[in-house]
Structure formats: structure tokens, C-alpha cells
Amino acid sequence: MLRIWGRLSSINVRKVVWAVQELGLSSVQRTDAGGQFGIVREPRYLGLNPNGLVPLIEDDQTGTVLWESNAIVRYLCARHAPGELYPEALPARFVAEQWMDWQQTTLNPAGRDAFIQWIRTPAAQRNDALIAASVAATEPLMAMLDAHLARQPYMAGERFTMADIPLGCEIHRWWGLPQERPARPHLERWYNAVSSRPGARGVLDLHLS
Length: 209
Known about the structure:
By secondary structure, the protein is of the alpha+beta class. The chain is 51% helix and 8% strand. It starts with a strand and ends in a 14-residue tail after the last helix.
């Protein structure tokens, strides 16, 4: 049994669920946790994940306990799809790693304020300056992604890999905000391809919350 702790309103939980679905794993149990569901401050949970955040996985077969979404995606792909979703050749693997790190350290922080203001802040309390600053920080990164995907079909090269999962979740969140955005033809082509994958169902077709 693979146990996943986390609510689907979390972008980081969505990454893990998408990876699980891409891999076709069947012995999986997901428990809502975090936000209104609580659990993450309970002693047992904190003993497994001292950050008190989601997601968390427990892989009974290997005895592995992991937190941090991109690390979980890497683990699952390495364990269940080596040479496929998890590239075996070092250059391809570390290009994938590079983009996964970039999503977490650069793209996600840039877009966070706009997401929080549009989706999780009551309209009367929204801070337009925070939204504007977030847009100003994020759109150049979207242009960078568009230029990258003009040269190749997927984030790490010619085929879908673990790198496309975190980026796909991030674009789903950014493009789901009720704001205008410039046309990005190469990014749009890529997003249409990844979002139409069976593994993305129930993840990239969810409303933001």
C-alpha cells in the first residue's frame, strides 16, 4: 500500500496524485489532510513530517516515508518507471531535475501572491498591488518557458518525464486565475499535450481552491 496524505486543493499534493496515476499504481490510499482537514499538527503526523505540511507518503513495500512533493515525484518515478518517467541517462535526468527545482524555487514563489489574492482572499480584502507584483514576476518566467518549449516538445526533451508534472501543475494554477495573459503558443501546445494525458485526469481539470 502507498499512503498519500494531503488534500487535492494543494498544488503539491496534485503533483503526487498525477505521478501515481501516470504510473498506474493501484494499491494507493489518499487521506485528506491539511487546511480544513487538520491532521498535520497531530503528533503521529509530525513524527513522520516535522514540517507539518502536505504531501506525505508512506510506502509500505519499501518502508519509505517522504515529504516534499518534487522529491516524492522523483522517488515514485525512479521506483516504478526507471528509464521512462525517470530518465536513466545523466544529462536527461539532471535536465529534468533542473526544471523541477526551478518550478519549486523560482516559478512557484513568483506566482504565489496572485494565486492567494485571487483564490483564497475575499474580494473586499484583495491587494491589487500584490497581484500586480506577482504578475510582473511571473510573466517573464512564462516567456522563458515558451522559448524553451519552442525548441523541444517536453521539458526535458523529446518525451514526457517527471519534469513535466510539477510544471504542468504550476501552469494549471497560473492559467486558472481570472486575469488576462499573453499568448504563449509553445507553452500552450505543451500544456494541451500534458493536460490531455489520462494520468492528468482529476488533477488538471480541477477548479482552483
